[in-house]
Amino acid sequence: MLIIGLTGGIGSGKSAASEHFERMGITVVDADVVARQVVEPSRPALAQIAAHFGDDILLASGSLDRQKLRQLIFKSKEQKIWLESLLHPIIRDEIIHQLKTSTSPYTLLVSPLLFETKQHELVNRTLLIDAPKALQIERASQRDDVTSSQIETIIESQMTRECKIKNADDIILNDSSLRALHQELERYHKHYLELSYEYNQP
Q1: Residues facing residue 4 across a β-bridge
Q2: Does the pTM exceed 0.85?
Q3: Contacting residues for 193 by C-beta, under 8 A, at least 6 apart
Q4: Could you tell me which of 172, 169, 136 has the C-alpha nearest to residue 154?
Q5: Is the dihedral angle over the CA atoms 173, 176, 180, 185 positive or is it negative?
Q6: Residue 8's closest CA among 102, 126, 125, 119?
Q7: Which segments of the chain are extended strands (E)?
Q8: Phi and psi, residue 139, nearest 5°
């Protein structure tokens, strides 16, 4: 099956793009959603996290206290490495499982860290939703109700825009209207349907 990796920085319009692909009947596997699923109550990963950090890492409901966990790994590089070494393989396996069970003509793997986490190795082509930095900051600060400096810090911590452009197979510059973005996505959708026919040939 043809798998398209969709990525983009914060405020680029990546979520709007994946939602439109879903409306066009394409299965979307979202790495961020998977990362939350694998630490749900009753999942083995959550028990391992609680055993390592202590039960106070859990909320009264038994679910993970994400804010407390973020604070812990922010303070300790060693704890961050431990957590990533636990979760990254589990997340990868779950992503692969969801990709394999998809029944749409092609499947979308959405990941903000597609290149950084080597998740691009799971896809056949990559589509970057790109936007100028100033526009990223404007959109994200309005959407998430955080300061421009906080958004800029997030952008600076990720792969540069130039590197993403260099690594991507397909690029949509999302610096206009939502309608314009949808038109570009529909053009690529048609192209990917044509490619999927080739991939699905015996």
Answers
A1: 108, 125
A2: yes
A3: 105, 106
A4: 136
A5: positive
A6: 126
A7: 2-7, 27-30, 106-110, 125-130, 170-173
A8: -65, -50
Q: Do residues 113 and 119 touch, judged by C-beta distance below 8 A?
A: yes
In the chain (202 residues long), the average pLDDT of successive 10-residue segments reads: 94 94 97 94 93 93 91 88 93 95 96 89 96 88 78 83 94 95 97 90 68
Q: Which amino acid, residue 71?
A: Q
User: What does the pLDDT read at residue 202?
Assistant: 66
Of 113, 56, 53, the closest CA to residue 80 belongs to 53
For 13-17, which contacts have Cβ atoms below 8 Å and span 24 or more sequence positions? 13/129, 13/131, 13/139, 13/174, 13/181, 14/110, 14/112, 14/129, 16/178, 16/181, 17/127, 17/129, 17/172, 17/174, 17/181, 17/185
CA–CA separation, 34 and 51 (whole Å): 21
DSSP 25: T
Query: Closest Cα partner for 20 from 187, 199, 133, 198?
Result: 187
The whole-angstrom distance between residue 23's C-alpha and the CA centroid of its chain comes to: 18
| Token reading at 169 | 């197979």
The single-letter code of the amino acid at 39 is: V
Q: How far apart are the first and last CA of the chain?
A: 11
Q: What is the pLDDT of residue 118?
A: 85
Cβ burial, residue 75 (10 Å; 0-12/13-18/19+): exposed
